[in-house]
Write a structure and sequence with these properties.
171 residues, mainly beta, 6-stranded mixed beta sheet, 5-stranded mixed beta sheet, 57% strand, disordered N terminus
Length: 171
């Protein structure tokens, strides 16, 4: 259910959720030429801001945490904002399990997970999806991964190397 503030009263609207989501997508992208629909979104490239191992705790779980910002077009400039409610999830490569969370109002997230090898995905409506493949995390390890999502309708892919550095994969 959506609550819309109208002057001094609140109106409850329950049937427009899909419409509101659709409007959000179309208002935040500039359409030029997409490979499937022959229309493409002008976009800003997504990137990893920070990727580092913070330390190891004496626990059997591990954690991936950080923040998600968004860079978007605004008139003739670009703005960077925190992205509250961005979707962050990991796919366990070994067990096919998926664990996810939404960022808090400050764009921060914290996933406590079992040690394994994961693919991390970050998504927000109207912004490029960012995917990081092959994150190996050991018991007690804490990894900080902070992301800048660029406005658009594409995907940015990174691969983690054995030494915990990463390489951007051109699609």
């Amino acid at each position: 259910m959506l609550v819309v503030r109208n002057s001094s009263s609140y109106e409850k609207i329950s049937s427009v959720m899909f419409f509101v989501s659709f409007v959000s997508i179309s208002c935040t992208t500039r359409v030029l030429n997409h490979p499937i629909t022959n229309v493409n979104c002008e976009s800003i490239d997504s990137r990893i801001i920070n990727f580092k191992v913070l330390g190891i705790d004496d626990t059997k779980f591990a954690s991936i945490s950080g923040y998600v910002d968004g860079k978007r077009f605004y008139q003739n400039d670009t703005l960077v904002d925190k992205l509250p409610s961005a979707n962050v999830w990991v796919e366990d490569i070994l067990t096919d399990s998926i664990y996810g969370i939404a960022t808090n109002p400050d764009g921060e997230y914290n996933l406590e997970i079992s040690p394994s090898k994961y693919n991390l995905n970050v998504q927000f409506v109207g912004f490029n999806v960012l995917k990081i493949d092959g994150i190996k995390i050991d018991s007690g390890e804490k990894i900080d991964i902070s992301i800048l999502l660029g406005q658009g309708c594409g995907q940015t892919l990174y691969k983690v190397n054995n030494d915990k550095t990463f390489t951007k994969i051109n699609l």
